[in-house]
Please model this.
Amino acid sequence: MKHINIRNLNIVFTEKSDGNMRDAILRKNFIKKHKLPFPVLPKQIHSSLVLNADSHSLECDGLFTQEQNKALGVLTADCMPVVLTDFSSLSVIHAGWRGLIGGIIENALRMFGKKEIFAFIGPSARKCCYEVQEGFAENLKKTGVSERFFSRFSDRITFSLQELAEEKLKICGIKEIYDISLCTICSQNFFSYRNGNFEERILTMAWLED
Ligand SMILES: [Zn+2]
Model:
């Protein structure tokens, strides 16, 4: 696992060697072993919904809290884990292409109101490896996604989730963006759906200390 500390913000993301974080027992043991706060996880339904972590339903793909020491997490394998914070409130979201197009970043930012936000983009499929079909590119472009997020080679097209996310963040006025720049597909350290890890997941979690 990697632990990043910026001011009162803590971000932890797991690696393959930590095991499959979709396994609730393994996840619990991992949290205990590293003395981390237990994270609240959304159900993750590939929506663009962001809810307060105290909500009755967690049928969403992003959580928000104003509580200190309350950890929020998401499970991913190629999709983007994104952490947003103004260092007094926190949101952690699971953003695949569907969520991005659906406005999950904008939905999360709306919960903060007008604040200076810091954004973190975790390990995910990147343009070096994230191959898409021509039809996919055409469909995304119809929703307003720019051609510049696609890289065209003689034999393949790749897509940059991170650059699209960064554009959305910048349009919303976010200037501080820390992209960890780790590709789940070509790094051997992470589970990747595209590499056949259909069941295994990375846990990315964050919390704010008092
Ligand atoms: Zn790659």
